[in-house]
């Protein structure tokens, strides 16, 4: 099942390190079959408030996403980003191709009734 690296980037400060990070990140993703799905343009906010931008990376599975994040190659360049951009990064599993949110509702109703 695919997994994703989701980053919510806020207060970006222009810096040459950011350009270096952008130039080097793909080389850290390639060995883990990671790819950019979304990369940072401002979003069209249709509900609520969304300060900043987002990045979405896709990996074959959660173990591979974790391996990328903890890899020496990524850890080496990570400060180029984190020293200049405030944000959050999550690793999360996707859903199966036939995912049905109604099944989740059934499970949540059962948990609420039990507890």
Quaternary class: single chain
> How many H/I helical runs?
4
Helix content percent band: 40-55%
Low-confidence stretches: none
Shape: globular
Question: Can you give the mean pLDDT?
Answer: 95
* Major β-sheet profile: 4 strands, antiparallel
Radius of gyration: 17 Å
Order of helices and strands: EHEEHHEH
Please list the strands of the largest sheet in the order they lie side by side. 2-3-1-4
Q: Determine the strand fraction and express it as a percent band.
A: 25-35%
What is the rounded distance between the termini?
30 Å
**Count of individual beta strands:** 4
Domain DUF1330: 3-95
Protein name: DUF1330 domain-containing protein
Pfam family, one: DUF1330
Organism: Nocardia suismassiliense
Polypeptide structure, described:
- This protein has a four-stranded antiparallel sheet.
- The chain contains four helices and four strands.
- It is globular, with a radius of gyration of 17 Å.
- By secondary structure, the chain is of the alpha+beta class.
- α1 runs antiparallel to α3.
- 11% of the residues are buried.
What would you say about this model in short?
With 115 residues, the chain is an alpha+beta fold. It contains four helices and four strands, in the order E-H-E-E-H-H-E-H.
Topology:
Blueprint lengths: L2 E10 L3 H14 L5 E5 L13 E7 L2 H9 L1 H11 L2 E9 L7 H14 L1
Antiparallel strand pairs: 1-3, 1-4, 2-3
Keywords:
115 residues, 42% helix, 4-stranded antiparallel β-sheet
